[in-house]
Amino acid sequence: MRNFKQYFGHLGEKLLEHFSCACKSDEDRVMRHGRMFVSEHHICFSSHILGEYIKILPFKKVRDISKENTALVIPNAISVIMTDGTRYFFPSFMQREEAFSLLEALFIEHRARLALSGGSIDRERAVLPRSSEHEEAEEGKQGIDEKLKGAELSIEEEEEEEEDGDEEEDEYDDDEVYEEED
């Protein structure tokens, strides 16, 4: 995907999956609609509504990932809490279950790597996955290798298209803005 390479290419990672959603952190006044890009080591988000809004969240700094509801009853959101306590709220997912499975599988994988490498996990702040969600995450983790292989193929195809001079319009040109109500 062109925007992933443009805004997050410096990370040197392959895109595993991307999702349409919105984002609001604790510091933001306005929720921004855009695109979440998931790579092996990062959750990335970009929006170009009301100016450029770019976020890069390394999995090694994620403390918890959970499913959330919008307006108390709509099950279409994911919350990501960082080790510094900052909360990122991602509502408006059309594919929340798929997104959550992938994010949690990568989160579990990073926690396991950190523990195996002798790195310190802040045990007071670290939140381990709940058992039923752990099983779902394990199922999602099985698809990560497949996504890595698919990402490599799609990147090669994308580079070939760019070399041919094909200019495609972005498929997610969405002008909808979500504002916080006081």
Could you walk me through the main structural features you see in this protein, from its secondary elements to its overall organization?
The structure is a single chain. β6 and β7 form a beta hairpin. The longest helix is centred in the last third of the chain and has 34 residues. α2 crosses α3. This protein has 182 residues and is α+β, with helices and mostly antiparallel strands. Strands 1, 2, 3, 4, 5, 6, 7 and 8 form an 8-stranded antiparallel β-sheet that branches. The chain has 3 helices and 8 strands. It is globular, with a radius of gyration of 17 Å.
Q: What is the tally of beta strands?
A: 8
Strand-and-helix sequence, N→C?
Answer: HEEEEEEEHHE
Q: What composes the largest sheet?
A: 8 strands, antiparallel
The rough form would be described as globular
Helix content: 25-40%
Q: Distance N terminus to C terminus?
A: 36 Å
Summing up helix and strand content along with how strands pair, one would put the structural category as alpha+beta
Q: What's the alpha carbon Rg, rounded to whole Å?
A: 17 Å
- Low-pLDDT segments, ≥5 res: 123-134, 165-182
> Hey, roughly how much beta strand do the residues contain?
25-35%
Q: Determine the number of helices (DSSP H or I, runs of at least 4 residues).
A: 3
Overall mean pLDDT = 76
List the helices and strands and how they pair.
Blueprint lengths: L1 H7 L6 E11 L4 E10 L2 E6 L5 E6 L3 E9 L3 E9 L4 E4 L5 H21 L14 H34 L13 E2 L3
Antiparallel strand pairs: 1-2, 1-7, 2-3, 2-8, 3-4, 5-6, 6-7
Compose a concise summary of this entry:
The chain has 182 residues and is of the alpha+beta class. Helix content is 34%, strand content 31%.
